[in-house]
Design brief:
Elements (H helix, E strand, L loop, with lengths): L1 H23 L2 E8 L4 H20 L3 E8 L15 H10 L3 E6 H11 L9 E4 L2 H10 L3 E3 L2
Parallel strand pairs: 1-2, 1-5, 2-3, 3-4
Length: 147
């Protein structure tokens, strides 16, 4: 009988917590992958981030979006060559829980090839590896999007 009471209590607690989470809105997480030096792809990635954020906000939900750039896509986050830097700066101010991750491996390769430091936008944070970061995010339950 005590086991039955414990089970009933566990079920009641689970139902209560689920109801509370629903009433407060759901939390979502998405990782967006950019590995191409193509302004159309970069803009599509930014459109995805904006649209996902707007959609879930309209539903009363929250969403965390992390855009991960590596390889040729790192150009997106370069202070000197990004074709979308003004848009990134604006979106960083407009959208809560939006982050931009720059691949440290790519930065090191570009630095060696160009013979100079690679300037990043202030919105970018450096991660050791873009691919590893995408793996980590997926292991943490992030949905994966590649525009």
């Amino acid at each position: 009988m005590p086991a039955l009471k414990s089970l009933a209590l566990a079920v009641a607690l689970t139902v209560s917590l689920a109801g509370q989470a629903w009433a407060e809105g759901r939390a979502h997480k998405v990782a967006i992958h950019v590995d191409e030096n193509d302004p159309a792809v970069m803009n599509m990635a930014l459109n995805n981030a904006k649209n996902v954020s707007s959609y879930y906000k309209s539903k009363g939900d929250t969403v965390t979006v992390e855009l991960v750039a590596y390889g040729p896509g790192l150009t997106m986050l370069r202070a000197d060559t990004s074709p979308v830097k003004d848009r990134i700066s604006a979106m960083s101010l407009e959208i809560d829980h939006l982050t931009f991750s720059a691949c440290g491996n790519t930065i090191a390769g570009m630095k060696k090839k160009e013979g100079k430091d690679i300037p990043l936008m202030s919105e970018a944070k450096v991660v050791p590896s873009g691919v590893v970061r995408l793996i980590e995010l997926q292991e943490q339950g992030y949905a994966y999007v590649r525009p």
